[in-house]
Amino acid sequence: MTIDTKFWAVVPAAGVGKRMNADRPKQYLELADKAVIEHTLLRLLSADVFSAIAVAISKEDPYWPELEVSLHEKIITADGGKERSDSVLSALKSIRALASDDDWVLVHDAARPCITATDIKLLINTLRDDDVGGILALSSHDTLKDVQGTFIRGTLDRSHIWRALTPQMFKYGSLKNALEIAEGNPAITDEASALELQGLQPKIVEGRPDNIKITRPEDLALAQFYMEHQND
Ligand code: C5P
Hints:
Blueprint: E1 7-12, E2 30-31, E3 34-35, H1 36-46, E4 53-57, E5 75-79, H2 84-94, E6 104-107, H3 117-127, E7 133-139, E8 145-148, E9 151-155, E10 162-171, H4 172-182, H5 191-196, E11 203-206, H6 219-229
Helix pairs in contact: 2-4
This protein binds cytidine-5'-monophosphate.
Cytidine-5'-monophosphate binds at residues 12-15, 27, 56, 80-84, 87, 109-111, 213, 215.
């Protein structure tokens, strides 16, 4: 890493969040007096490490322009895509003229508002001299079953199983290239899987369990609880 290597954040925020059964996409639901995505972006901004944050927003999204944070000088709005990986690629393209291939990009879900500066800095400090990059992840405490229908086929060896969180940190050039090659592949559900497809081996960095993704209605109360108890 050279002295002028920059860090960029990419936030895919163009999903509809069907599992919330709400009147609006989950990133716009209210959490402690703000929209979920406002918390997420304010936390990324306050980590004070990013040159800019590219946010992928659906073209038909009426909520984004209403948020003050959308006008922040470090926020760049990009068009969202059909799948999460399309949204990430679109956001990467929106900073093409600003970023170098060797800069680091941290991709973080809009729906993970409890991200802390501690975890962002842990990921960066662990991987900044790495060749490939990696992701925040959590080990699994539950016994994991391989199931077909309602029948258990077997029990997985959980010592090898980690849950992928975000941010996921990769070099601008290799991430863009990996996502372009993987375009349309339904197996690409996070950035790491696009790099894995290239035969690369991203690393895991153990993250905090309070970095939850808002997926179901009850997650909002849990996120609020975590936020009230986080002091770093
Ligand atoms: O649906 P899921 O929780 O996996 O979405 C993770 C993140 O990806 C969310 O922040 C969502 O807004 C974003 N996303 C996107 N474009 C899509 C689908 C999801 O930016 N087409």
